[in-house]
Amino acid sequence: MSLQPRLNTRTIQILGLVGMLSATAVFAADDGDVQASRQATQSENFDLTSDQLEAGREAKPNVIYGYKLDTMRKAEKPAFVTLIDAHSYARGQALAQRGVLFTYQNRAAREVRFVADIPGMSPQPMRRNQYGVWIYYYVPPEIVHAAPTKKVRYKFWVDGLFTVDDTHEQHEKDSSGTIASVFHLLHDHFAASSGVFVLDTPVNHGREVLFRIPAGDAETASVAGDFNRWSGQRDYLVRSEEGYFELKKIIPPGEYTFLYRVDGKLTQKVSTAKSRMHPVYGRVNYFVVK
């Protein structure tokens, strides 16, 4: 009788140890499956225009050099890339640009244009390389308005006839009612612009003006100028999720000078295209509302 409790206790301990080892093996197997699934997912070549990326997947743009465009032998699916072009740099342009590479292959074509359903954008000529691949590089505009166009509907004009992009499977009707290819731009594809911008927003008695500067480590920012009697306590900028201080203000037509007030100190901060000398504040920012 005295051995029975000891036997039961020992048996329970052994069974508990076996259970723990089994559970560890199961969790290890599950973890291995999860890691294998993640690796398989990462190894897939996701299309930058897919709904998965539009829903929020992080897309790392590829880097392509300008000379490789001349040796491209076939059209490829449109992709967001960083283009490094020494020839453009020699002509005074930026060495590296971020944008979407569109290509179309037709050796017999005499002229091909990139036609996008974007307000204010005229048909753009595409460049042909020696292998009959036509190339157009689209650089998204800087973010000025709060909601930039993220869907690019486009087609190719080939010797007077329109055609969709055969390398891309996403199509829908554009504003003209005809079928066009579609490329989805993500938020990270746009470069935020700093400065002061007179927007096209229709308002009474003036225009809506956007002030935007990088926030950095500053805690507060405001604007002081002719439009508010140089008071740095009236018009405060609000920190955005992208790391900028921003303010939209309706300002009547006229010429204006102003300074930013960052953490209580007046500064020119981001210079505008034009500046003026102020009798009190020295060099100041300048803009015109028409």
Tally of domains: 2
Summarize the biggest pleated sheet: 6 strands, antiparallel
What assembly state would you assign to the polypeptide chains in this entry?
Answer: single chain
As a whole number of angstroms, the C-alpha radius of gyration is: 29 Å
CATH class of the largest domain: Mainly Beta
According to CATH, the fold-level topology of the largest domain is: Immunoglobulin-like
Task: Please outline what is shown here.
This protein has 290 residues and is α+β, with helices and mostly antiparallel strands. The chain contains four helices and 21 strands.
Which descriptors would you attach to this protein?
290 residues, alpha+beta, Immunoglobulin-like, 2 domains, 6-stranded antiparallel β-sheet, 4 helices, disordered N terminus, Ig_E-set
Task: Give an overview of the whole structure.
With 290 residues, this protein is α+β, with helices and mostly antiparallel strands. The protein folds into 2 domains: 51-189, Immunoglobulin-like (Sandwich); 195-289, Sandwich (Immunoglobulin-like), CATH 2.60.40.10. Helix content is 19%, strand content 40%. The protein contains 4 helices and 21 strands. The chain has helices at residues 3-43, 51-54, 66-70, 86-90, and strands spanning 62-65, 79-84, 96-105, 112-116, 124-125, 127-128, 133-138, 151-158, 161-163, 171-173, 179-184, 195-203, 206-214, 221-225, 235-236, 238-239, 244-251, 254-262, 265-267, 274-278, 282-289. Strands 4, 5, 8, 9, 10 and 11 form a 6-stranded antiparallel beta sheet that branches. Strand 20 and strand 21 (282-289) form a beta hairpin. The chain starts with a helix and ends with a strand.
